[in-house]
Amino acid sequence: SALQIPFVMALAPGFAILLWGVMSVLKERRIAFWPFLVPLVIGVIGAVASGSRSVLFGIGGLWAVGLAVACIVLARRQHDALSVVLFVVYAVGTLVLPFLSSRGNVSTPAIQWTAQGVNTVTQGLFAYAAYRLLRRAERTEPADATVAA
To answer: Which are the contacts of 51, defined by CB distance < 8 A and separation ≥ 6?
Structure first.
């Protein structure tokens, strides 16, 4: 439907921006965005040239898995084993979605409910794990940087 097009177009850039942000946190400085932009531009060109949104789904999926890996590294640095597990489950769920969508007619209710269920659970796990990392970071940061100096 026409409503799916803006959604699909936003997935890959959204995941790229999230990954860029987490990578900047891991590097403890803002890193350049252009390495994230190049695959997006190639993906959009590929999608337009092929007339298929699957190129953008693929790139969005790669960014999503990259985001999971970066978050796993961040969670390990924070010594948060539960968040590591949650981000691993998120990555596995993300990798399962293309398999589910390739199983026959994706418009059947059973496949739709299964895919949406997996997506909802994995996104919820991601949100909870990210919340845990945020809470941990808030507890470990000094209240006032001038006092620490």
So the answer is: none
Query: How many other C-beta atoms can be found within 10 angstroms of the C-beta atom of residue 28?
Result: 7
Q: Give residue for tokens 């993906």.
A: 43
How confident is the model over 63-116, as pLDDT tens digits? 999 999 999 999 999 999 999 999 999 999 999 988 877 776 777 888 888 888
* CA 144 from centre of chain: 32
Angstrom distance (rounded) from CA 28 to CA 9: 29
CA distance 58 to 9: 12
Question: Can you tell me the distance from the alpha carbon of 72 to that of 143, in angstroms, rounded to the nearest whole number?
Answer: 26
Q: How many beta carbons lie within 10 A of that of residue 108, not counting itself?
A: 11
DSSP H or E stretch at residue 15: helix 4-27
